[in-house]
Amino acid sequence: MMGSLDVTKVHWKRCPTAWKGQFQGREKVASIGLKAVVDNNLWFWHAAFGFPGTLNDINIWEQSSLYESMIDGQHDELDFDFLVDGEVFDKLFYLVNGIYSPLTHFLSSESDPHTKLAFSFAQRSRKSQKG
User: Fold this and answer.
1) pLDDT tens for residues 98-131?
2) Dist CA 49 CA 36 (whole Å)
3) If DSSP codes are grouped into helix, strand and coil, which group holds residue 46?
4) What distance in Å separates the CA atoms of residue 55 and residue 32, rounded to the nearest whole number?
5) Coarse DSSP helix, strand, coil percentages of the chain, rounded to the nearest 5 percent
6) How far is it, in rounded angstroms, from Cα 48 to Cα 50?
7) How wide is the angle at C-alpha 47 spanned by C-alphas 66 and 62, nearest 5°?
8) pTM for the whole thing?
9) From CA 119, how far away is CA 109, in angstroms rounded?
């Protein structure tokens, strides 16, 4: 697995008055969006910063160069074979929550897990995303 993909908003205390309307989201304070892929060692593999606070996570993701590379097939060039618990994988995976569109590189937990394994995975993925 490559890491967790998520978007977060950072409050911008000294936002210029002329820009406040563009950067003020539903929280009623100016904020800037940060999109990042981070692994379990907190190593940033991908980051983009500066999105207006009025954009939601999906809008930010769809403007991403990482998204474009997945759609046009360039991201597949990054894949390589690796071994996890004795099983060979050939595609990098990103842990995401359920709001992202289903792509082959995305791994998200079920919203209503029915098996013990699916429940355990869902529980662990939620913990790792909360940090």
Assistant:
1) 777 777 777 776 566 667 766 666 666 666 555 5
2) 9
3) strand
4) 9
5) 30, 30, 40
6) 7
7) 40
8) 0.67
9) 8
d(CA 121, CA 23): 36
Give the pair of three-digit tokens for residue 90: 């050939």
CA distance 117 to 80: 26
Tell me the residue type at 90.
D
When pLDDT is averaged across residues 67-75 and rounded to a whole number, the result is 84
Per DSSP, the chain holds a count of helices (H) and strands (E) of 4, 7
The two tokens of residue 35 are 């999109």
Give the amino acid at 74: Q
More confident residue, 73 or 16: 16
